[in-house]
Amino acid sequence: MPHLSHIFIYPIKSLDGVAVSQATLLESGAIAGDREFAIIDARGQYVNGKRHAAIHRLRSRFDLGQRTVTLQVQGQSATVSFNLEADRRDLANWLSDYFGFAVQLQQNQQVGFPDDLASPGPTLISSETLQTVATWFPGLTLEEVRRRFRTNLEIAAEVPFWEERLFNADDRPQPFQIGSVQLAGINPCQRCVVPLRDSQTGETYSGFQARFTAARKATLPAWAPQSRFNHFYKLAINTRLVPGSTARQLQVGDPIQGL
Question: Which of 16, 28, 81, 132 has its CA 20 to 30 A from that of 91?
Fold first, then answer.
């Protein structure tokens, strides 16, 4: 039976993630602590990989218990640490100096800052899918592909793209369970410019999107609803918490069932 093999939380949107063995879903369906903070510029826009390739060169290590982040610029030895509550202004000042323009750190503990506000549940993909994508690009490892696509939940499944059984040909949510948590698959995730870039340096992989799109079209499984692919630059699925669901705890090893 397919089961949950990895959980990743990204405390600050667009920075590095943290692998955890368990996670709790909020009432909104978002994972507690995931994208809880976002870096915002003076115009109120996200400072993220879509707009600023320099963010890829920031390494971040989080202590979730102590609520701290340690930052380091790729290739440099110096590190600096901040408490996400007490030192938020100092953290914003450090980030402003790094980017060369003023930024603030905003917090949302109810839903975080997901890309898809209509489906703020955890994004989901299989390890087999990520491994298959890695084979399309000479020089890319499974870990690098994992970092580029930044998915919350990774499952061990039977075949690549198994997760594309978890959404319907129309907009109807497709219910499924991970352990006792009731989720609904909504749609395949439309990707942005971020996967084109090296997750550590921001350097663009030449021809990435064209190669990905061609390979994705050629390998679309029979069970994936083709009506949901108006283009093929899509990977992983968006989810929502089923309304009224009270179970909120996810644990690595939980089986996926109820299809």
Answer: 28
